[in-house]
Amino acid sequence: MNDQLRSFLFRGLMFESEAESFRKAGIQIGVSSTETEETLLQEALAPFGVVRRNQALEMARLYAVLFCFENEIRDFIRDALAEKEGADWQDKLPPKIKEHAEGRRETAQKDSWLEGEKSDLLGFIDFGHLAQVIIAKWDHFKDIVPTQHWLKQRMDELEKARNFIAHNRMLLPTEFQRIYMYIADWNRVIGL
Predict the structure, then answer these.
(1) Which of 6, 68, 88, 113 is the most buried (most CB within 10 A)?
(2) Which residues of 129-161 are buried (b: 16+ CB within 10 A; e: fewer)?
């Protein structure tokens, strides 16, 4: 490495080090990605009325929580089954659920122009099937999940809310609270 390149790299590291101390002191250095994202969001929502925009932002927050929750459950199932049943755990899923997920995955691989994740079989299992998998494999989950009834009741209610949100319908504040409560219950039980 020549001296000029070494000097350039050193100056860059020094700048980053100094910039970080300024950031910690509350002084903004450079472009804020948060501000940029907020500006882009405001521009995208600008054509719509204030009430609609506010509703969209409320629902977006709820969607984000449900997205994280649903995918945490998928990870929870995947990790438990891989540990208890081995690398071929997918072959041991309840047959009807497995067939349904495989069919959806095949359709996505053949017919879809979307290039998102397509290898994870659990990604093609319906939300409602997640509780069914846990119940079918109860011996692997009974030490963590309080009861099958507890699981089914919460998952059934959350599935209804999830489907409502997925079809862009507005929920009431009390329904928001119930969703947050059920997810908080799950996170407490699972240890998140």
Answers:
(1) 68
(2) bbbbbbebbeebbeeebeeeeebeebbeebbeb
